[in-house]
Design a protein that fits this description.
The chain is an alpha+beta fold. It contains three helices and seven strands. Helices cover 15% and strands 26% of the residues.
């Protein structure tokens, strides 16, 4: 069995619409074939960050029985920092202290 975890944005694009699906293992299975089976286009699959068993992987990576695949749609942006690194904003030595 292969467990596919589709993070925010990916599940919404998929055929199943589920954030977690389990599929039977079969010889020759790759991340790309799973993504295509879930209805994502080749163009959409190029946008994905792929992890197999918590390790970065490529879209063409082969799968083995028992693998857990995370499909992540990277996002950009975030909040702008309004203070410099230092104790006054809770960041000391690269770690935030609250």
């Amino acid at each position: 069995m292969i467990t596919i975890i589709m993070h925010t944005g990916v599940a919404e694009m998929s055929r199943s619409g589920k954030s977690r699906v389990e599929i039977p293992y079969r010889a020759g299975l790759t991340v790309a074939s799973v993504v295509l089976d879930e209805g994502l286009s080749a163009e959409q699959s190029e946008l994905l960050m792929v992890m197999i068993n918590s390790e970065h992987a490529e879209i063409e990576s082969p799968l083995r029985d028992g693998d857990v695949v995370d499909l992540i749609l990277p996002i950009a942006g975030g909040a702008r920092l309004h203070c410099a690194v230092g104790p006054e904003c809770g960041i000391v030595g690269g770690a935030r202290h609250v």
